Every structure is written in structure tokens, then in C-alpha cells.
Amino acid sequence: MRMNRTLETLAFDNTHARLPEAFHARVQPTPLTNPFLVSFNPDAAALIDLDPDEAKRPEFVEYFGGGRLLPGSEPVAMLYAGHQFGHYVPQLGDGRAILLGEVRNGTGEKWDLHLKGAGFTPFSRDDDGRAVLRSTIREYLCSEAMHGLGIPTTRALCIVGSEEPVYRETLETGATLLRLAPSHVRFGSFEVFYYRRQIERVRQLADYVIEQHYPHLAAEADRYARLLSEVATRTARMIAQWQAVGFAHGVMNSDNMSILGLTLDYGPFGFLDEYNPSFICNHSDGRGRYAFHHQPDIGYFNLRCLAQALEPVVPEEPAQAALETYEATFADCYWSHMRRKVGVSESRSEDQTLIADLLTLLLADHVDYTSCFRALGEFRLTADQEKEPLRDFFLDRAGFDAWAGRYRGRLEAEGSRDDERKMRMNRVNPKYVLRNYLAQVAIERATRERDFSEIDRLREVLRDPYAEQPEMERYAAPPPDWGKTVIVSCSS
Ligand code: AMP
Ligand code: MG
């Protein structure tokens, strides 16, 4: 059933606003000065049954630039705390985002309408409650790119720009991003009540999350332990996908960890260009706590924070058991993705070494991660090794030839067929990812020239990143020299 609703007839069902006052603060968005539409995403509109033509109405930017409330909206800023860079911060909360309300679509799915950059809230602390255009473009494009890659993520409906001055390292302009997710509850939403010794609130929040998102657990005696276990599984799977595709989140604080295992809060993220496991995408993360290869361990650290917060309702033994599922699920999932990336169908004991050795070659020769795996799909069992196009990726020809010989043997051992394997591999090795430099081009055109066309073009390319799209070939290229050094920090 597909409906096309107007802005005024969206079907709100505001479950979070019905929770006790302790869980949020009632707030109103602060309008942006002279708002205008920067980009609109019809794919996300379909999730809430919104007619895409609605984006053409002048009211659209008023509603999503904080200037006017949608009928049925009951805006709140959600309360949470969290571990930031390993340290507990007792109160964070939506300091610059507002949950406008929740829409239930025709198929019964519920979507939070979360307006980022909507102005001051009681949780803004000393900050301005705003987001700058640059950071909304990054989040908008990356969340849709992740969805295109098949990775669980929040979604993005639109960006509204403005002439509102916002001060960061330099003077920028404010913007809002309308983010969609079935829930914005974070690990930190539980932590805040645990550390305040408000145990009943912990239980209430767990009941709420189960009722809304894990209803199959509702009648189980050990439902809280099973909730923890399912969150651990989802988190493990999500991070395994990040690692396989070469995505670094950049700020994996426990307040940025979704209770639904969604990629949440895009800040200084980055995709690997050259393969480098110790890649640090966040310029503010000098010690590399959130470096690419630390992400699986940080996922575990954050789950321990969640388990700690749930301690009043989950006894130690089942909590430990739930945490233990994390490592095994991660490893299973990661290696299964990596095996698919090299195109082997069966699982054999030598596979992990074969894959690890390829990564070692990539690291040594600064090879582009995405391009190399995509090109690996072209490997031909029948071809002459000397003519293998993949060889050109490596300086260490002998090293590559030795690896390719083992790879050939491995493929032959399972009777692999070139064309069929290539088809399978192209469905897991993306041709297009949101490289930093691509986002940067779109940002510069938008901020300097008010030309937003590159944002839309990138969104189009990235919604189907596994397809060849020959006319878009240039978006598959590794970064030019200037694009290797784009600096991204927490400032957004
Ligand atoms: P983030 O780094 O975006 O995950 O944000 C961490 C915390 O800082 C959250 O509580 C945010 O709401 C808050 N925050 C970040 N930027 C701002 C801002 N410009 N104004 C108010 N609060 C902010
Ligand atoms: Mg955050």
C-alpha cells in the first residue's frame, strides 16, 4: 500500500512524546533566517508516504527549516548521556536536534522526524544549537550512500539552507537536516538514568524500546537480557559491514550508538581511499581511539557501557553471555563479507590468510581499497598472469604474482567460473563510495556558488553503488592529490 500524503496530512504517532517528562524536554525549533531548499530526497519521502511534489511548495522549507510546526508534531529534545572518548559525560541530550514527531506510514512502520540544526534546547550547553551547511551535506550524502551499500543507517529527507551566520573555525551558514530513523534511542539514553540511580527509568526505557522495536521479546521472562543480546548482534553486524566496505565512523561515543544497530550521527567519518587499517578520519582524534581498525573493539566497549546501564534489569551472567555473542558474530559476519569480496563461495581454512595477505599487499603499496576490490572481480582464471590488469595496482609485482597464483588455485579448487564470480563480486564490492573529496566538491560548490546540483548528482550515483553507471565513471576515481588531505574534525 503506497500513499501520497501532503505535509499537513502526515500520520503522526508520537510515542516518545507520550513517555514521562523525564525522557525529554519539550522545545520549539528556532527558525532559520531566510531558509531555502538545498536538496530533497524522494526515496526518503516514500518512507513516510510524503508526496514528492510537496517539496515544491514554499511551506516545505518553513516546516523543515524550523519556521513552522507540522500539524501533529509534538517536538521534544531527547535526553541522553554517554561515554565520549572513553569518559562518562553525565548529560548530553539533543543539543541541536529536535524530534519533531513520529510518522507511522501505511505499512505500519514508524519513522522519527528528527531535525538537526534546529536551534537551542535545554541540552545545548554552551553551544549554538545549529549545524552548518557543510556538515549537513556530509550527513545527507553519507546516510543515503550507506543505505545504498546495504548498511543499516539513519536516512535523510532534505537539507534546508539559510543566511543565518554560524561561527565555527570561520563564519559559515546554518542549515537543517531532516533525519529519519525508526528510533533515535542511543546506548547513552540508558546510561543517563543508570548513573542517576533512576533504575525505574532504565526499566521504563527498556520496556518502551522492546514494545516499539523488539515486540517479539515482550512476553519473554528474560526480555532485557535478550534485548542486550540482539543489540549486540546488530551492532556486530553493522560494524562488520563498516569494516568490509572501508567506512570509519570517526566518533564512536556511546551516545552515537543506536539501540537499533543503525549507523548514527555522521560527523568526521571517512571511507578508506588507500588501504590503511590505522586510518584516523577525525582530525580531533589525535590518539586514534576511533581509528578504522579499532572500531570492532570500540563497539564492544560501547556494548559494555550499555550492559552496565542495564545491570539493574539484566543479571551478570546473561549480560556476559550477551556480550560474548558480539565477538563471534562480528568475526562470522566480517569474514563472510570478506570471502564474498574475494569471490569465494565455500569457506576454507586458508581463506583468512589469503585475504589478510592481500590486505598486506594493499597496505604496502598504498593501493586504493574500493577500486582494487572492484577490479578483483575482473580476475580471469584463463588469462595470462602477465596481462592481469590488477597487477598494475601494485609496485610489488612479484608479491602480487605470488598472491594471484594462490588465489587462482583457491578459485580453481572450488570450480569457480569467471563470469558468474564477477557478477557475485560486483554485488558486494561497490564501485562508488562517498570519498571525502567527492563530498568536498559538492560542499564547495554549495557554499561558494550556491550550486546544489552536485549534491543531487552524488546522491543519484550513490544510491546504486554496485551498478557500473558508465556515464558516472569519474565518481569512481581515487582522490586527486588535493583530495587526499581534506581535513575533517568534530566541528560541525
Ligand atoms: P555529536 O558530536 O554531534 O555527536 O554531539 C555530541 C553532543 O554535543 C550532543 O549532545 C550534541 O547535541 C551536542 N552538540 C554538538 N554540537 C552542538 C551545537 N552546535 N549546539 C548544541 N549542542 C551541540
Ligand atoms: Mg551525537
What features would you highlight for this structure?
6-stranded antiparallel beta sheet, alpha+beta, 14 helices, binds magnesium ion, globular, binds adenosine monophosphate, 492 residues, 13% strand
Radius of gyration: 23 Å
Dominant shape: globular
Strand content: 5-15%
Taking the alpha carbons of the first and last residues, their distance comes to 39 Å
The overall average pLDDT, rounded, is 97
Enumerate how many helices there are, as a single number.
14
Structural class: alpha+beta
Q: Can you list the ligands bound to this structure?
A: adenosine monophosphate, magnesium ion
- Poorly predicted spans: none
What's the β-strand tally? 12
- Secondary-structure element string: EEHHEEEEEEHEEHHHEEHHHHHHHH
Give helix % range: 25-40%
Largest sheet: 6 strands, antiparallel
